[in-house]
TrEMBL record, chain A:
Residues 225-367 form the FIST C-domain domain. InterPro entries: FIST_C, FIST_domain_N. The lineage of its organism: Bacteria, Bacillati, Actinomycetota, Actinomycetes, Micromonosporales. It comes from the Bacteria. Signal peptide: none annotated. It comes from Actinoplanes lutulentus. This is FIST-like protein. Residues 31-224 form the FIST domain.
From TrEMBL, chain B:
InterPro entries: Biofilm_reg_signaling, EAL_dom, EAL_sf, GGDEF_dom, Nucleotide_cyclase, Rev_trsase/Diguanyl_cyclase. It comes from Actinoplanes lutulentus. PANTHER family: BIOFILM ARCHITECTURE MAINTENANCE PROTEIN MBAA, DIGUANYLATE CYCLASE DGCP. It holds the Pfam family GGDEF. This is Diguanylate cyclase (GGDEF)-like protein. The lineage of its organism: Bacteria, Bacillati, Actinomycetota, Actinomycetes, Micromonosporales.
């Protein structure tokens, strides 16, 4: 039997029926090694998992999470379920789950990475599914890196709840939990490829983060960060009175942190007029070189294509088998009506190679360097046949 | 160096310094250096070994030089850069692209910052340890300055407050009967009681006054007044407060307090507390619940006592005690019935002198004065020996010495009896009866030849205990005599129940050379009482022929006194016994 990769998708409202529809399409009666279930919040997940299990058989790993949208079988949806499965020879999967991770994300990352032990294949990757509401995800990645080290790529994303920021869920086999980090160690005897791209470009001169702490930027180039942002974007102070209007404006101009491989994007979520700071809710280290970023629909769509192309390129000439996609929920919002163009460009790059995944609350990807937390980015993991 | 690099260095320094120890600081330094320089691998090497490794397992780095070639699967050969610092080498390995000049500069700066931070931490650690030690010391001092049981200041803190106070009075409080509570209800109850007493003391004094626990069951209060009458008023209040029952171990406990007061301008804090202590001692001596204000002459007495105490401790081992014997004479026949052993202390003369040659009880006056010794009256040292418990040892020595002596005399005078004085402490000593038994066995004295003399006040202090202890003694066959009878307050009902054989009528009743009618009436009554209870009667202090005759007429069995025979050293006794003394 050959190695295989399949995806299915359903927007039916009954959890079991939707799961049956998506799982049947993804699995097609083949025995999977692992089945990924990504669904919007609101489904009765145990019923859904039972239905998936009925297709997957008792031995397969069933893993997944709640989302801010899902991707499968050439579709994306806000409400629905996407099932992605893979199996066949030369593949192995092990998992580990760290519970009650809030406040100890670094340890949680290391615990999630423990599943790497026992994966012997030449090509390995650690997939991480985190809870998008547990704080500084950067620490989760640091913890995972402390175990995985430089030679094992990290990919994945954090569970969402349709950007309501109330509660997210992670699934592993029959358990449905919150506040966890799940590690999925993937071993393959053929290459794996990772893609990281966002489609944002630098806008104006570089700035230095002269004062920042815990995801809050106080000063850029020695000046209050909010003042710099308003001036650079030509925005009026009055905009700060309207949180939503500010967020919408700032959304289109995230910070880009200088990297050799490009820029790591940090979304500006809010401003604090008291201390003139900007809230990024992710690490923006003091001393970092940063730019205000800009983009447009074409560039964002192009970013998706770029991410896929990178992943395929990394397969060393091997034929792609399928692709896991972790696309930022903020990209989904920003693309809005142009989402289908994103799906189209992915399809265009991949041809008839199947792909599935979800819209994430923070993306994880590391191939080079030691850092791996991303925002406003599309991360892809390609498997080869 | 770039402007942004300095900010990165600041961040780096802050992150490293925030760690609690060297290991954590080194780890975070390696991590941050790796991240900032966008490297995959970082490490700190010290003394040729891998201290910390990031992005790679330490064993892959060990054994490599400071500029190793690192070839990682899937990544290829890393470009390694390193920078030395005081204690080692900071190293990063980066894929694809070697560090540029600015990045190498930054790495060098980070290494130096790490070295600085580690030095800092070493200092900080030492400082923290010292600070912790200082805190512990302060705690222990605080501990010593506050009594953990009552929360009151200790003597140390009390003296400090006293020094600061200027004009002040000190009350020195000693609890009466505390030991009894401790002994009968246990130490925990004793501790509870001390806590309750402390609270009562607090409730009796003003906010500005300072209470303290000086030790054991001793408390003190510093009053912000130098007026004796005010201090006495507070002391009375305290005594009343302590006299009220305390609820301890589920029962009401009654204790009391004796208080000494010292007020004083010009006295040092230590002197003031010491004076109050001296006054308290006097108060204690005067009886429970007394208040005594210190007067300078008390100090000399106290000093004398202190010296006496030390000397007394050594007197026994130095053999400074002697026994004299005073015969008990049958008033009817004038013959010797027995002898009473009387203790004498021949104290070598040095230092102070204590009422030498003073009249001893039992009508004894030292004879054969041989210089240079002071003859210390039993009246001066026996009470102290009682207090310190030394009386047990002294009493045992008396018992054995007199027993040996009497046994020797009895070879010539087989009917000779021996009277030995026994103190209250001895009577309640659980080993006393065994001591007597051993002495009898060793000397071969028949039990009925020995009589233990106990004062009326000892027996009546706690008649129930006395009855129990005397019972044991009597079961040996030893006789019991009530000494100084008539001076205490014997209850006739107890007298009836006390297992005694002899009443020694106090000399006070024949104080006049020619006894008065009233005196004679009392003696007659006692003699008749003795006869009714079948007790032998002895009259003490017979100093004239008139007295002897009168006593004989009254029917008193035995007499003692200068007129009959003075106390004598043992070597003189046989001669005295074989010549008729009086007829």
């Amino acid at each position: 039997m050959e190695r295989w990769f399949g995806t299915g998708h359903s927007t039916l409202t009954d959890p079991a029926t939707a799961a049956h529809e998506a799982a049947a399409a993804a699995i097609e009666g083949r025995p999977p090694v692992v089945v990924f279930v990504f669904c919007s919040v609101g489904y009765h997940v145990p019923e859904m998992l039972a239905a998936v299990r009925s297709h997957a058989g008792p031995d397969a790993v069933v893993v997944g999470c709640s989302t801010s949208g899902q991707i499968g079988a050439g579709f994306q949806s806000g409400d629905g379920v996407a099932v992605t499965a893979l199996g066949g020879p030369g593949l192995s999967v092990r998992t580990s789950m760290s519970r009650n991770v809030t406040g100890r994300l670094r340890d949680a990352g290391a615990e999630a990475a423990a599943c790497l032990a026992g994966i012997e294949q030449e090509h390995r990757a650690l997939l991480i599914i985190g809870d998008g509401l547990t704080g500084d995800q950067h620490e989760l990645v640091r913890g995972a890196y402390s175990v995985a080290g430089a030679t094992i790529p990290l990919v994945g994303g954090c569970a969402g709840d349709h950007l309501t920021y109330v509660r997210t869920y992670q699934f592993l086999d029959d358990e449905v939990l919150s506040d966890t980090a799940i590690g999925i160690a993937l071993g393959s005897d053929t290459p794996l490829g990772v893609g990281i791209a966002h489609g944002w470009r630098k806008e104006g001169a570089a700035m230095i983060v002269t004062r920042s702490q815990d995801g809050r930027v106080y000063e850029l180039d020695g000046e209050p960060a909010l003042d710099v942002l308003l001036r650079r974007l030509g925005l009026d102070e009055a905009l700060c009175d309207d949180e939503e209007a500010f967020r919408d404006a700032a959304f289109l101009h995230p910070l880009g942190l200088s990297r050799r491989s490009g820029e790591d994007i940090r979304v500006i979520h809010a401003a604090d007029r008291n201390d003139r700071s900007l809230l990024c809710l992710a690490d923006v280290p003091q001393g970092a070189l940063a730019w205000l970023m800009e983009s447009d629909t074409d560039a964002l769509v192009e970013g998706a294509g770029e991410s896929c192309a990178q992943a395929l390129d990394a397969l060393g000439g091997r034929e792609p088998l399928g692709m896991l996609v972790f696309d930022c929920a903020a990209r989904r919002i920003t693309l809005g009506d142009a989402l289908d163009r994103e799906i189209a460009v992915i399809g265009k790059v991949l041809g008839d190679v199947p792909y599935g995944g979800f819209y994430t609350n923070g993306e994880i990807a590391r191939v080079r360097g030691a850092l791996g937390m991303h925002h406003f980015t599309m991360v892809t993991l390609a498997l080869s046949s | 160096m770039n402007h942004w690099s300095t900010h990165q260095l600041t961040e780096f320094f802050a992150a490293v310094c925030a760690r609690p120890d060297e290991a954590a600081a080194t780890s975070v330094a390696v991590e941050r250096a790796t991240e900032v320089l966008e490297a995959e691998v970082g490490a700190v090497l010290r003394d040729g070994r891998v201290d910390v490794a990031w992005g790679i397992s330490a064993d892959k780095l060990s054994g490599l030089s400071e500029n190793p070639v690192l070839d990682l699967p899937g990544i290829g050969e890393l470009h390694v850069a390193s920078a030395r610092f005081g204690g080692g080498t900071l190293l990063v390995g980066r894929a694809d692209e070697a560090l540029g000049p600015e990045e190498r500069q930054l790495l060098q700066a980070m290494a130096q910052v790490l070295g600085l931070a580690l030095d800092n931490l070493t200092l900080l650690t030492a400082e923290r340890r010292q600070a912790a030690e200082r805190l512990a010391l302060l705690d222990s001092l605080r501990e010593a300055r506050h009594d953990s049981l009552t929360g009151l200041p200790t003597r140390v803190l009390f003296l400090e407050k006293l020094r600061e106070a200027g004009t002040a009075s000190v009350l020195f409080i000693d609890l009466d009967r505390f030991k009894a509570v401790n002994d009968s209800l246990g130490h925990r109850a004793g501790d509870d009681l001390l806590g309750l007493v402390a609270a009562r003391i607090r409730s009796c004094i003003d906010d500005g006054d300072v209470p303290a626990r000086i030790g054991g069951d001793e408390f003190a209060v510093l009053l912000r007044t130098s007026r004796g009458d005010e201090a006495v008023a507070v002391a009375r209040r305290l005594i009343d407060a302590v006299r009220r029952p305390f609820r301890v171990a589920g029962r009401d406990v009654f204790i009391g307090a004796s208080i000494g007061i010292a007020t004083g301008a010009g006295s040092s804090a230590d002197d003031l507390l010491g004076n109050a202590d001296v006054a308290m001692y006097r108060a204690k001596k005067d009886g429970p619940g007394k208040v005594v204000v210190f007067e300078p002459h008390m100090h000399a007495q106290a000093l004398a006592r202190l010296n006496l105490d030390g000397d007394l401790q050594r007197a026994l081992e130095l053999g400074q005690f002697r026994l004299q014997y005073q015969p008990l004479i049958r008033l009817g026949s004038g013959t010797t019935y027995g002898v009473e052993a009387l203790i004498r202390w021949h104290k070598p003369r040095h230092g102070y002198a204590l009422t030498p040659g003073s009249v001893a009880p039992h009508g004894a006056v030292p004879v054969d004065v041989a210089a240079p010794v002071d003859f210390v009256s039993p009246a001066d040292f026996v009470p102290m020996a009682e207090e310190t418990g030394l009386i047990i040892d002294i009493g045992r020595w008396v018992l054995n010495t007199a027993g040996d002596q009497a046994a020797r005399w009895r070879t010539a005078m087989p009917d000779l009896r021996l009277n030995v004085n026994v103190s209250g402490r001895q009577l309640t000593d659980p080993l006393f009866v065994a001591d007597v038994e051993r002495m009898l066995a060793r000397t071969g004295l028949p039990a009925e030849a020995v009589t233990c003399e106990l004062t009326e006040s000892v027996l009546m202090n706690d008649p129930a205990v006395a009855i129990a202890c005397l019972g044991e003694l009597r079961s040996l066959g030893v006789g019991v005599s009530i000494d100084d009878f008539g001076t205490g307050y014997s209850s006739l009902s107890y007298l009836r129940r006390l297992p005694v054989d002899e009443l020694k009528i106090d000399r006070a009743f024949i104080g006049e050379a020619v006894p008065s009618r009233e005196d004679l009436a009392v003696v007659r009554a006692v003699v008749e009482l003795g006869r009714t209870l079948k007790l032998r009667t002895v009259i003490e202090g017979v100093e004239t022929e008139e007295q002897r005759r009168a006593m004989r007429r009254l029917g008193c069995d035995l007499g003692q006194g200068y007129h009959l025979c003075r106390p004598a050293d043992p070597e003189r006794i046989p001669g005295l016994l074989f010549e008729p003394i009086a007829a």
